[in-house]
Design goal:
By secondary structure, the protein is of the alpha/beta class. It has two domains: about 5-175 and about 280-365, Rossmann fold; about 175-275, Rna Polymerase Sigma Factor, Chain: A. Helix content is about 35%, strand content about 15%. It contains eleven helices and 14 strands. Strands 1-4-8-5-11-12-13-14 form an eight-stranded mixed β-sheet, with helices on both faces. Strand 2 and strand 3 (about 20) form a beta hairpin. Helix 1 crosses helix 2 and helix 4 (about 205-220) packs across helix 6 (about 250-265). The longest helix has 19 residues, at about 350-365.
């Protein structure tokens, strides 16, 4: 099955900052079929560097980033559910972002693009869902930044979603998480090719963006997974070079990941999206996290992983405790995995079993 990216256009969107962004376009993909009652729609929310291509193959032969859980008979069963995934506001994969041409100037927005939030991303998704004729989603789900969006959906639009599945995520960034993002941003802005964000007519700040990705990728893995994958093995040599060329396999891997990232991602989008994650605080505007989550009406399945040190389980437990303090319907499971934060993408067998059962019971309850 080859899937095609679609586009929806809106006259404007008013952001949390008060700025009206106009016009705005969103890239999205759909899998499966919407039923007559329009009750089987699931919105998948991508992580920081993801995009709308979540499943199956596209015209370029690229597999979706969560293809192992979306499809016939999989956790998000496309024989049963209508699955939607959209690129976030501020992205660089089809949705309006810093690289988009500003109609008023005829040039890319670059750093004149307004600052965005997770709430803004969700607001645009709600506009898309409305355009698709869906009043209430069966579920919203995502890992990492996708989990933040799922939580925001539950708080912002409680009557528009029946179930929420936040995976390996948090209700707000810790100082350490903000610190890692700031290192990435500073790496980009220190690259002379960044040119204060105005680089679209010249060389990209590839060195800075590659370093930002290298730092980020380290946080996605665990010590155990890195030890198993690389150890201290040397790259194509039997002894140290005693210079600053690549000696270790892990060095080669990080440089490769950084260079590949530069080919597909925009440095300014990195700045805007990482800042949106740092600004995210689900309790903002409420007396507490419990008060924020107390206004939700959905069922929750919260998942975390034992080796995830970027979004450790204690942050998921904070969400669970807040929900339970307000007698919300929530199930929680910490899954054993050595893959670190990346576990929600690669170590999916148990995750799939839990999601499959949770969705089936939610769907049966709605259909009853």
């Amino acid at each position: 099955m080859v899937v095609e990216t679609k586009f929806a256009r809106f006259d404007s969107i008013t952001l949390d900052s008060g700025v009206a962004l106009a016009p705005v376009e969103v890239a999205y993909e759909t899998y499966g079929a919407l039923n007559a009652a329009r009750s089987n729609a699931i919105l998948i929310l991508h992580a920081f560097s993801g995009d709308a291509h979540a499943a199956f193959e596209n015209a370029e032969g690229q597999e979706g980033w969560w293809d192992n859980v979306i499809g016939p008979g999989k956790a998000f069963d496309t024989d049963r559910y209508f699955v939607i995934c959209a690129n976030v506001l501020g992205g660089c994969r089809g949705t309006t972002g810093p690289a988009t041409v500003n109609g008023a100037t005829g040039r890319p927005y670059a750093m004149t693009f307004p600052v965005i939030t997770i709430g803004d991303m969700v607001r645009l998704q709600k506009m898309l869902i409305g355009q698709l004729g869906i009043e209430r989603l069966l579920a919203v789900s995502g890992g990492s930044m996708g989990g933040m969006q799922a939580l925001q959906w539950a708080v912002s639009y409680p009557e528009a979603v029946a179930a929420v599945i936040p995976i390996a995520t948090t209700s707000r960034h810790s100082a350490q998480q903000i610190a890692f993002n700031e290192v990435g941003r500073q790496a980009i802005m220190a690259d002379t090719d960044w040119n204060s964000g105005d680089y679209y007519d010249g060389p990209k700040p590839g060195r800075g963006l590659a370093v930002a990705r290298m730092v980020g990728h380290i946080t996605y893995m665990s010590d155990a997974s890195m030890r198993e994958k690389f150890g201290r093995r040397l790259r194509g040599k039997d002894e140290f070079g005693f210079d600053f060329s690549v000696d270790f396999e892990v060095e080669s891997y990080l440089r490769y990941r950084g260079s590949k990232f530069v080919e597909r991602f925009d440095a300014n989008s990195y700045l805007y999206i990482s800042k949106a994650m740092d600004y995210f605080d689900l309790s903002a505007g409420h007396a507490s996290l419990g008060d924020a989550l107390g206004q939700t009406a959905a069922r929750f399945l919260v998942l975390s992983f034992t080796s995830d040190w970027l979004y450790p389980s204690y942050q998921s437990l904070e969400i669970v405790r807040a929900l339970r303090s307000r007698n919300r319907d929530v199930a929680y499971c910490e899954l054993t995995s050595n893959y670190g934060h990346d576990a929600f993408l690669v170590d999916v067998r148990e995750e799939s079993d839990l999601v499959r059962g949770f969705l089936a019971s939610t769907y049966a309850e709605i259909a009853a």
